[in-house]
Amino acid sequence: MLPNRAFVLGGAASGKSAYAENLTYLYGKSRVYLATAQIFDDEMAAKKNRHLAQRGDDWTTIEEPFDAATVLKQAGPDQVYLMDCATLWLTNHMLAEHDLDAEQDRLMRAMNTCKANLVVVSNEVGQGIVPDTTLGRRFREAQGRLNIDLAKNCDLVVQIVAGLPNVLKGRLP
């Protein structure tokens, strides 16, 4: 059975995004990629273009660095949305000095009422060293709280390590 909401997390370059993309194909529905990255330099622009080419034309891409909640409210039951990634979404709000608790509450409400199936990708940042800056420590704590909330609100939680899935909650389809 396919989960209504799936949460895929892992470290940098762990294979989490590829795993999440592959998961969306199992639904047999129209796929929508909710991209949260902001493009500030040539390296990020090249990465975006590479990912668009890899996904191909059978995806609709929505670029929304801040208001994922509104995008998810517009989703239909004949779609599966892939939000990649919650970490960049959080970073965008943190650097813009938005109310993180309010934005996270909005996102969770939108996820829980979303008519589409949903797969959310996020980074696991709590297994590394303690950041040496105040901003770094604030981010790590905020990311941990967001990941806990995402895991609580999803039917399937999968941690990706070295490209391999480790199921933390639910069952793999």
Task: Describe how the helices and strands are arranged.
Layout: E1 5-10, H1 16-25, E2 30-35, H2 42-55, E3 59-63, H3 68-73, E4 79-84, H4 86-95, H5 100-113, E5 117-123, H6 134-152, E6 156-161, E7 164-169
Parallel strand pairs: 1-5, 1-6, 2-3, 2-4, 4-5
Antiparallel strand pairs: 6-7
State the gist of this model:
The chain is an alpha/beta fold. It contains 6 helices and 7 strands.
What does this structure look like?
- There is one protein chain.
- The chain is α/β, with parallel strands linked by helices.
- The chain has one domain (5-169): Rossmann fold, CATH 3.40.50.
- The protein has six helices and seven strands.
- It has helices at residues 16-25, 42-55, 68-73, 86-95, 100-113, 134-152, and strands at residues 5-10, 30-35, 59-63, 79-84, 117-123, 156-161, 164-169.
- It has a seven-stranded mixed sheet with strand order 3-2-4-5-1-6-7, sandwiched between helices.
- The chain is globular.
- The termini are close together.
- The mean pLDDT is 95.
